[in-house]
Amino acid sequence: MNMLVVAxxxxxxxxxxKSPTGTFAPGLVTCPNTTSLIREGDSLSNSEKSWIDQRxxxxxxxxxxxxxxxxxxxxxDLFENSSADVNIAVSMSGGGYRAMLxxxxxxxxxxxxxxxxxxxxxxxxxxxxxxxxxxxxxxxxVGSLVMQDFPTVEEVVxxxxxxxxxxxxxxxxxxxxxxxTIAFSVLFDSxxxxxxHLNNYVVxxxxxxxxxxxxxxxxxxxxxxxxxxPWARGLSYQLLQEGEDDYGTSTTFSDLRGMKTFQxxxxxxxxxxxxxxxxxxxxxxxxxxxxxxxxxEMGSFDPSVNSFIDIKYLGTNVxxxxxxxxxxxxxxxxxxxxxxxxxxxxxxxxxSLTCPTxxxxxxxxxxxxxxxxxxxxxxxxxxxxYSPNPFKGSQYAGSDSIxxxxxxxxxxxGLANETLAISSLLTTHRKIDAVVAMDNGDNWPNGRPLIxxxxxxxxxxxxxxxxxxxxxxxxxxxxxLTAKPTFFGCDASNxxxxxxxxxxxxxxxxxxxxxxxxxxxxxxxxxxxxxxEKKGMVRNGFETAARLNGTIDENWPKCVGCALIKREQERQxxxxxxxxxxxxxxxxxxxxxxxPEGVYYPxxxxxxxxxxxxxxxxxxxGEGQTYTSxxxxxxx
Length: 636
Ligand SMILES: *[C@@H]1O[C@H](CO)[C@@H](O)[C@H](O)[C@H]1NC(C)=O
Ligand SMILES: *[C@@H]1O[C@H](CO)[C@@H](O)[C@H](O)[C@H]1NC(C)=O
Ligand SMILES: *[C@@H]1O[C@H](CO)[C@@H](O)[C@H](O)[C@H]1NC(C)=O
Ligand SMILES: *[C@@H]1O[C@H](CO)[C@@H](O)[C@H](O)[C@H]1NC(C)=O
Ligand SMILES: *[C@@H]1O[C@H](CO)[C@@H](O)[C@H](O)[C@H]1NC(C)=O
Ligand SMILES: *[C@@H]1O[C@H](CO)[C@@H](O)[C@H](O)[C@H]1NC(C)=O
Ligand SMILES: *[C@@H]1O[C@H](CO)[C@@H](O)[C@H](O)[C@H]1NC(C)=O
Ligand SMILES: *[C@@H]1O[C@H](CO)[C@@H](O)[C@H](O)[C@H]1NC(C)=O
Ligand SMILES: *[C@@H]1O[C@H](CO)[C@@H](O)[C@H](O)[C@H]1NC(C)=O
Ligand SMILES: *[C@@H]1O[C@H](CO)[C@@H](O)[C@H](O)[C@H]1NC(C)=O
Ligand SMILES: *[C@@H]1O[C@H](CO)[C@@H](O)[C@H](O)[C@H]1NC(C)=O
Ligand SMILES: *[C@@H]1O[C@H](CO)[C@@H](O)[C@H](O)[C@H]1NC(C)=O
Fold this sequence. Notes:
alpha+beta; Cytosolic phospholipase A2 catalytic domain; two-stranded antiparallel sheet; binds 2-acetamido-2-deoxy-beta-D-glucopyranose; LysoPLipase_cat_dom; Lysophospholipase; hydrolase
C-alpha cells in the first residue's frame, strides 16, 4: 500500500467512520451534495452493483477452486463461456442464541479458512458467495463477524483473543439474580426501573460509561428511546470488541465501507432485515413491509415503501428525501442498533418469564409482567423507533400508511414466520442462482421460513420476489426434508410459472438444525450458555452442514457443487454430469407432498439417516444422554 492510501485510510478512520459525536448519540454532519437522500426501490443501488462486480472477480475463481477440490473438474468448461456468471448467496436464519451459535458452526463449515471445512466440509462456499443475509439471532452472528473485519468462527470461539461471545451467567444480557427487584419495576410499569437490570447498565459512573449514559445521550440529542436502545447496547457488549469506544458505542454499520475485508471484497455483501409495523396497528403478516439494511443503504423493495436511503444519513429530518433543516445527521446507524432492530423481539424474551411452563415467576408476578408487556406495547416501547422517519413523504412509496408518520416502527425480521432473511435477498434485482439456507428457527425446524417466503411471492408486497416450490410443514417433517439437506427448485423447467422479469427462482440448498453431538434445539429464551454449551452448539452446527464430517455421505460437498452451478448450466444448455444427476436424485425434493389424514404428530428422536421414532444417542455421548423435547414453538 502506498503512503497516500494509508494516509487516506487513517484520515477516513477519523473522519468518515463512527458517529460524529463519538458516542451512541447521532450528530450533525454536512449533507452530501445531492438533492435527495432517497431513491426509488426499483433496482439495486449503484454502489451495490459496482461492489458486487468487484466481488465477482473473486468469487468466480473461488467457485472454480471449490469445484475442482470436490472433483467436479469436468464442469469447469462452464467458465470458458465469458458470460458465465454464478451468483451465490448464503442465508442464516434467526432463532436467538441458538441461531447465532448453531449458525456459527454451519458458517465455519462453508469457510475455507476453517481447516476441517476443506477436508470434509463445504469450505470455499462462503468464499464463492456474493451475499450473506440474516436476521435476528443470525444477524448477531453475521454482524459480529463483519464488524470485526471478518475473523473466522474458529478464532472467535476457540482462540477468543477479543473476549467476545462470552454468554456465561455473569455476562448475559439481563442480570436475573434479583428477580424480585425486576418485579418491582414491572409492578409500577417502570421502563427505566426495568432496564436497570441489564448488565453493563452502569459500567463506570464517574466516566459515564454504560447503557444508562448511552441512552441518555441519544435522548438528549432529541431521539426517542425504546427498549431497542438498551437491547442494542447490551448485545454490543457481547458481540463487539471493546475497542476504543466501549464496545461500539459510536461504531456505525456504514463503517463497514471503510473496513479492510469489505474494501478488498473479501467478505460477502452482508444484509439484515427487519419488518415494519403499520402505525396504529400491532399486527404483522406476509404483507408487512420487509426492510433491508446493507452497508450502503436501508429501505425496502416492497411496493408499500419502494424507497432506499443512504444508511449513513438515517436520523436526518427529511421530506421526500430532502433534508428539511438543510443539515444532515449521521451516527444513527449504530452497528449494535441495526442488529438490535433486526432482533427487536424483546417482548418475546420478556414473555418467557410468563410462559405457562416457566417457573421463574409466580402467578401474581406473571400477571404484572403481562401488564407491563402491554404497557410497553401500547406505548410503542417494545419495538424500534426510527424517528425521524427516513421515508416520510417518499414519492416512490405505494402506500402512505408508513410514509405519513413521523416515525418508522421496526421490529424483528422473523416475526411474520419468515425466519430466513429471504424476501429481500431473493428480489429479482439480485438474480441469485443458488442460496444456501441454514434454518435454525423453531425448536426443530419445519421448513416454515421457506414456506412463508414462497407464499409471500404471490402477495402484492412480494412483487419482486422469486422463490421455488416448497411443500407444507408436514411434508418437511414426515418426508425427512429437515432430517438431511434438501434442494428445492432443482429444475428451472419446473419453475416457469414462478419466473418474474425473466428471473428464474434460485435453487435453494436447505439445511436444517439437527442433533449429532449436541442437542441443539435450545430454547429461544436461553440467555446464557456455558463455554462447553457454546462450543457444543458450534461443533454440532459444523457437523450439520458437513453431514457429520463426511461420514454420512462423502459426496455431499460435490453435490453442493452440482447445485451451485445448476442454473448457469441451464442457461448455457449444458446437461449435468452423471455424478451430479445422482446427487440430484439424493438431495432434490421429489415434488411429493404428504397430507396427513388427522392430527399430525411430528417424529421425535433422530438417527443419522433421518428422523425416526427409534431411540437415539448423541455421537460420542455416553449412555443416558437422551433427546428431550422442547415444547416451545416460536418462529423466531
Ligand atoms: C454539487 O454537484 C453539482 C452537480 O453534480 C456540481 O455542479 C457542484 O459543483 C457540486 N457542489 C459542490 C459544493 O461540490
Ligand atoms: C480460500 O479461498 C480463497 C478464494 O478462492 C483463496 O484465495 C484462498 O487461498 C483459500 N484459502 C485456503 C486456506 O484454501
Ligand atoms: C467469561 O466471563 C467470565 C466472567 O467474566 C469469566 O470468568 C470466564 O472465564 C469467561 N469465559 C471465557 C471462555 O472467556
Ligand atoms: C403515527 O404512529 C403512532 C403509533 O402507532 C400513532 O399513534 C400516530 O397516530 C401516527 N401518526 C400519524 C400521523 O399517523
Ligand atoms: C396482502 O394484500 C393484498 C392486497 O391488498 C390482499 O389481497 C391480501 O389478502 C393480503 N394478504 C395478507 C396475507 O394479508
Ligand atoms: C427534526 O424535526 C423535528 C420537528 O421539526 C424537530 O423536533 C427535531 O429536532 C428535528 N431533528 C433534527 C435531528 O434535526
Ligand atoms: C405463522 O405460521 C403458523 C403456522 O403455519 C400460522 O399459524 C401463523 O398464522 C403464521 N403467522 C403469521 C404472522 O403469518
Ligand atoms: C425418513 O427416514 C427414515 C429413516 O431413514 C425412513 O425410515 C423413512 O422411510 C423416511 N421417510 C420417507 C417419507 O422417505
Ligand atoms: C467434526 O469436525 C468438527 C470441526 O473440526 C469437530 O469439531 C468435530 O469434533 C468433528 N466431529 C466428529 C464427530 O468427528
Ligand atoms: C454462453 O452462455 C450464454 C448464457 O449465459 C448462452 O446463451 C451462450 O449460448 C453460451 N455460449 C456458448 C458458446 O456456449
Ligand atoms: C418437474 O417436472 C417434471 C415433469 O413435468 C415432473 O415429473 C416432476 O415431478 C417435477 N418435479 C418437481 C420437484 O416438481
Ligand atoms: C427416543 O429416544 C429415547 C432415548 O433413546 C428413548 O428412550 C425414547 O423411547 C425414544 N422415543 C421414541 C418415541 O421412540
